[in-house]
Amino acid sequence: MIGEMLANRYEILEKIGDGGMALVYSAKDHLLSRIVAVKILRAQFADDDEFVERFRREARSAASLSHPNIVNIYDVGETGRVHFIVMEYVQGKNLHDLIRDCEHFPQDTIVSVGKQIAMGLAHAHYHGIIHRDIKPHNILVTDEGRVKVTDFGIAQAMSSTNLTQTGMVLGSVHYFSPEQARGVNVQAASDLYSLGIVLYEMIAGSPPFRGESPISIALKQIQENPLPLRDARPDLDGELEDVVLKLLNKDPKKRGASAEEVVKAFQRIERRIQMHGEGQAHGDQTMPLPAQGKSRRGGFVGLATKKKRKKRQQEKGAPKGAPRKSKGLIILVILLVLAGITFGAIRLIPRLLFLDDVRVPNVVGLFELEATRVLRDADLVLKVEQSVFDNEVPAGHIISQDPVAGRMVKQKRDILVRISLGAEEVEMPSVIGLTTREGKLGLTQAGFVLGEEEEAYDPEVSPGIVLEQYPEPGQIVLKGTAVNLVVSKGKEAPQSFALPDFRGQDFEVVKARIRELGLPLGNSWPEHSTIYQEGQVVEQNPAPGTMVQEGWSIDFVYSQGMTPSTPEPQIPADPREEPQWTHENLWKTQDVILDIQPGPDQEVVILVIDDFGAREVYRETHKGGSRVVRTIQGRGQNARIQVYIGGRQFYDQLFQE
Ligand code: ATP
Ligand code: MG
Question: Cα–Cα distance between 247 and 517 in angstroms, integer?
Fold first, then answer.
């Protein structure tokens, strides 16, 4: 693993710890150039899909927490089968190692640790997250003495596996609350109990309840009272002792109203210790602990180590633990006698501790009352976690349950359910006039779903602006309804199209047709034609096939019928009269005969320049070696014909008489 790059980003540097569920490494985050801690799920859990999903969910919910006394979660991810959590790297030690190395903590240090843990818990509890596994391993202390709690909620994922049956739970059972030991309702107050055990251990050097097996420890959590702390520490501050004992109450309701209240109690003690200038007082009122190695009076450097303590005890004669042990023995004997006398008591105790496993029935879709009954029949308790609006599930029915149906859990366990409040009706907000991005964002934020999106031209509205929405603004609709949008494409760009070939068609019909196409009629003039009948289009400009746009005008030459035969000389009846030139007199006709050079295709263009001006009368591509014959007409004395072949002028001459 060392040297590997996770998710293309986290370079694993070295192993810094390992626990039951995961291995912890320091790593370099190459994206943000900082050192982080990466917790990698052990391979045996990676195969349990449901566990992995839960692990990720819990990690994500813990990631929503941000507090100086909570280890920040930065990222949760997976690469292949490797599941990992990236978190703040805490330079320091865990409290377990600190307790092992320095047993005699100054009282202000204990108060400061307790206060900081309670501050972290208060923040998490406020956000609805219970730690469930408060123990010294999960409490990290920085070199500056700041306390940071880690692994929020991850124990929840653990409880979903069968691990609780294995030895892995051994490390935690010393810190389990009585309700956790029984396997029932974990609550915020359970974290307070565990905090009480941690503080007890800091004061006395070991946790209050110890035993050979998890069962014997759990039994003590449920039944026994801890030995008085003053036995272990005669100089103990009375109020500090009270706080710790209150936290260790078997009844969750009697442990104090909240973590917040515990913080206040510690703050009171801190102020008092400071005012009275007790030996352990340190000047720092803020959260961090006295720095290691900095202060002899308050820090960890001057603390008595376990070895020194043992030595002192030997010097004093009988160790202090002796009366405690004998007292413990007496209790044990009494218990055993009682257990022996009462038939079946031995069997009853484990059953009390570890209730039978039952299979969780499915209550999704059931009405709340019905679900409560079904769960009660299975010896489980329905607990409403949330009531939420839901378009699919009718009001009062169960939307989801946790744990899911089919899982084996302990009897009496809470089954958390989400209950539907039915469909929520809301007024449709307006997104008309907003940009599509703003509109969509607004709709999703208001709980709507994006439906279909269409585009439409609108010359007055810029492209990308919402023109219409369905359902329309102001309508009362179900929250979560899909909203369809019509978005402006702006002004319609004129479309180009190929001009049809109108030659040979009736000019009147053609006029109507171009009007339909949005093409105005340009110039038009008549021409004699040997090819087209009277009234038919002879020529058009632009030529057929040219790409044109709406609004472009089109010129036409239309047929007047055949060329008149040689005009009769018009002799004026009266020589004084002006000669009456008829229209026909001026028309000239000529056959153009062209031989295309052998070789590639050539475009032939024939222009007529006459009384009407210049116009193209022929444009066509012909094969090399072919012959082109066209009859061309022009009007007026100076009518000329220009012929272009392959873009070059071939000739330019007057119509021949
Ligand atoms: P459990 O598996 O029951 O939680 P654990 O808490 O000892 O036991 P891990 O949570 O895997 O196991 O942590 C192992 C050790 O890694 C911790 O005890 C701590 O010393 C170290 N560690 C964990 N998180 C960090 C961190 N963010 N920064 C520095 N060290 C850490
Ligand atoms: Mg841990």
Answer: 89
Sign, CA dihedral 122-94-185-197, equals negative
**Ligand 1 pocket, mutate which of 138, 149, 152, 172 (most atoms under 8 A from CB):** 138
Other beta carbons less than 10 A from residue 629's beta carbon: 8
pLDDT above 70 for 199: yes
> Average pLDDT for residues 132-139, to the nearest whole number?
93
Residue nearest to atom 4 of ligand 1 (CA): 19
| Virtual torsion, Cα 445, 450, 453, 458, nearest 10 deg | -30
Q: Which helix (H) or strand (E) holds 101?
A: helix 95-101
Contact indicator for 429, 483 with CB cutoff of 8 Å = no
pLDDT of 298 over the 50 cut: no
> What average pLDDT does range 21-48 have in this prediction?
88
- For residue 87, is pLDDT > 90? yes
Burial of 95 (0-12, 13-18, 19+ CB in 10 A): buried
Residue 12 near residue 1 (C-beta atoms within 8 A) = yes
Q: Which of 4-8, 47-51, 187-191 has the lowest mean pLDDT?
A: 47-51
d(CA 575, CA 571): 8
**What is the reported pLDDT for 171?**
55
Whole-angstrom distance, CA of residue 274 vs CA of residue 281: 5
At 106, list the tokens.
């100054």
Residue 215's pLDDT is 82
Which pLDDT belongs to residue 634? 85
Give the separation between CA 374 and CA 369, rounded to whole angstroms. Answer: 9
Catalytic residue among 29, 133, 151, 458: 133
Closest CA to 222 of 247, 248, 242, 185: 248
- Is the model's pLDDT at 266 over the cut of 80? yes
The per-residue pLDDT for 323 is 42
Neighbouring C-alpha atoms within 13 Å toward the C-beta of 161: 22
- Ligand 1 test: best mutation among 72, 101, 140, 147, most atoms within 8 Å of CB? 140
Q: List, for residues 574-632, the tens digit of each pLDDT value.
A: 444 444 444 446 778 888 989 888 888 899 999 989 887 788 888 889 988 888 888 88
- The ligand that comes nearest to the alpha carbon of residue 96 is 1
Indicate which residue's Cα is closest to atom 27 of ligand 1. 89
Residue 532 contacts residue 617 (beta carbons within 8 Å): no
The C-alpha atoms of residue 485 and residue 330 are separated, in whole angstroms, by 80
Q: Which residues line ligand 1 (CB under 6 A)?
A: 16-22, 24, 37, 39, 71, 87-90, 94, 137-138, 140, 150-151, 171
Please name which of 181, 124, 180 lies closest in space to residue 151, comparing C-alpha atoms.
Answer: 124
pLDDT at 372: 93
Order of strands, edge to edge, in the sheet holding 521-527?
521-527, 554-559, 537-541
